[in-house]
Specification:
The protein is α+β, with helices and mostly antiparallel strands. The chain is built from three helices and five strands. A hairpin with a 5-residue loop joins strand 3 and strand 4. It starts with 7 loop residues before the first strand and ends with a strand.
Length: 120
């Protein structure tokens, strides 16, 4: 079994938002320093995906601090960020002549992995 290069991770599952919307915001913060990523998320126009990613990122930072007491948070970088599709909520919408249309409300799983920056 190989050792992981990631310092800490956090996951938020079954979030009621589509993966496509969340991935657009996740692409903005991938491979950035944690402080810089939090600033980008705070002032992003896409409020809901930014809030979800911010909460997950803060949770990963807290996990890193809990795991390693002497860790410098300013040197943490987002190593990997995954937005996967969760189960869809299936709903029914009434349609003409007694029929019903199916509505699928998408959910997402968000995973954030942090690593320590080396060098400059």
């Amino acid at each position: 079994m190989e050792t992981s290069k990631y310092v800490a991770s956090a996951a938020t599952r079954h979030v009621r938002i589509s993966t496509q919307k969340t991935r657009l915001v996740a692409d903005l913060i991938r491979k950035r320093l944690v402080g810089e990523a939090l600033t980008i998320l705070r002032f992003n126009a896409k409020a809901k995906p930014a809030l979800i990613l911010e909460k997950t990122l803060r949770s990963a930072v807290a996990n890193a601090q809990q795991k390693n007491a002497g860790l410098d948070v300013d040197k943490l970088v987002i190593g990997k960020i995954l937005i996967n599709q969760g189960p869809a909520w299936k709903r029914i919408r009434p349609a003409p002549q007694g029929r019903a249309y199916r509505i699928q409300k998408q959910t997402s799983h968000v995973h954030v992995y942090l690593e320590e920056k080396t060098g400059r």
